[in-house]
Design goal:
Layout (H helix, E strand, L loop, with lengths): L1 H8 L11 H28 L10 H33 L5 H35 L3 H5 L10
Helix pairs in contact: 2-3, 3-4
Length: about 150
């Protein structure tokens, strides 16, 4: 989460910034590190964690939870991948045109999608907090709820 916040705060404001070779190398390195962290977290979580949804949860709610989680991971992985694509296109001298515009559009769409999915995830956490079904405690490491269910 801290890497994501840092990436958003220090994002590239203008493609011309990539002409600075030190800045370019840092951005490409940051994108690779961010991608590796997202992939490592996905692999770890998918192999070690089970759903926190209580027994009897409706199939649609389970599907929604799975889609939101996969969507978050996919969008968070897509952001550095599209950023790397932008960097490669810039390095190749394709600093304008339909390829660069498409890569930038994809990058911006993935950032927006990640915001929306994180927002849905936060709303789901609040929903489960109100229900006091134990899911909040699995989603939020702070402020554990006291359940008697």
């Amino acid at each position: 989460m801290l890497l994501f916040a840092y990436g958003i705060v220090k994002q590239v404001d203008d493609l011309s910034q990539l002409a600075d070779s030190a800045f370019f190398r840092f951005e490409m390195g940051f994108a690779l590190v961010f991608l590796l962290v997202v992939v490592a977290r996905y692999l770890y979580m998918s192999r070690t964690q089970e759903t926190a949804l209580p027994e009897g949860t409706h199939k649609l709610q389970k599907l929604a939870a799975k889609l939101v989680h996969l969507g978050i991971y996919a969008s968070l992985a897509g952001i550095p991948l599209s950023g790397l694509l932008i960097g490669v296109l810039f390095w190749l001298g394709l600093r304008g045109g339909v390829l660069m515009e498409g890569a930038i559009g994809l990058h911006e769409m993935l950032i927006s999608l990640s915001y929306w999915l994180i927002g849905v995830h936060i709303l789901a956490a609040l929903f489960h907090r109100l229900r006091q079904d134990g899911v909040w405690s699995a989603m939020v490491p702070l402020w554990r709820e006291k359940t008697e269910k």
